């Protein structure tokens, strides 16, 4: 069922504590942790504690939690001292866009130049 933890989801296992992660922030609705395969000097994932496969389905079903994810992405940027130099928040949706874990999540990237267009 949408929103419920999924037994085969890596991020649901991180939320439950079953899989360890380097957590940098946690709220009632979100967890932020360092990416194990960083693409920038700072690469932190912010995930909702509820399970939805992507950002669009999260926003449609639980817009307040989607807003919480974005707010926490900004708080991570402040904590990691990325605000002055700039940072990027990315939501990949679908395997063609690079999504590998189908639990909604935001990537907070910074600490190096981030060219446009990405990819």
Structure, briefly:
This protein is an alpha+beta fold and 119 residues long.
Give the arrangement of secondary structure elements.
Blueprint: H1 10-16, E1 23-26, E2 30-34, E3 42-48, H2 55-61, H3 63-79, E4 87-90, E5 106-110
Antiparallel strand pairs: 1-2, 2-3, 3-5, 4-5
Quote the distance from N terminus to C terminus.
34 Å
Supply the number of helical segments: 3
**What is the overall pLDDT average?**
96
Number of strands: 5
Q: Characterize the main sheet.
A: 5 strands, antiparallel
- Taken from the alpha-carbon principal axes, the silhouette is globular
Strand order of the largest sheet: 1-2-3-5-4
**Rg (CA only):** 14 Å
Structural class: alpha+beta
Order of helices and strands: HEEEHHEE
Unreliable parts: none
Fraction of residues in helix: 25-40%
Query: How much of the polypeptide forms β-strand, as a percent range?
Result: 15-25%
Could you explain how this protein is built, in words?
The protein is α+β, with helices and mostly antiparallel strands. It contains three helices and five strands. It has helices spanning 10-16, 55-61, 63-79; strands spanning 23-26, 30-34, 42-48, 87-90, 106-110. The protein has a five-stranded antiparallel β-sheet with strand order 1-2-3-5-4, covered by helices on one side. A hairpin with a 3-residue loop joins strand 1 (23-26) and strand 2. The termini are far apart. The relative contact order is 0.21.
List keywords for this structure.
26% helix, 5 strands, 119 residues, 5-stranded antiparallel β-sheet
């Amino acid at each position: 069922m949408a929103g419920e933890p999924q037994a085969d989801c890596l991020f649901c296992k991180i939320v439950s504590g079953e899989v360890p992660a380097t957590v940098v922030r946690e709220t009632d609705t979100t967890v932020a942790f360092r990416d194990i395969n960083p693409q920038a000097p700072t690469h932190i994932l912010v995930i909702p504690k509820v399970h939805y496969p992507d950002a669009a389905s999260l926003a449609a079903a639980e817009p307040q939690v989607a807003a919480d994810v974005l707010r926490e992405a900004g708080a991570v940027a402040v904590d990691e001292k990325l605000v002055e130099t700039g940072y990027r928040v990315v939501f990949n949706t679908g395997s063609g866009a690079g999504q590998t874990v189908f639990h909604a999540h935001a990537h907070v990237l910074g600490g190096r130049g981030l060219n446009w267009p990405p990819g």
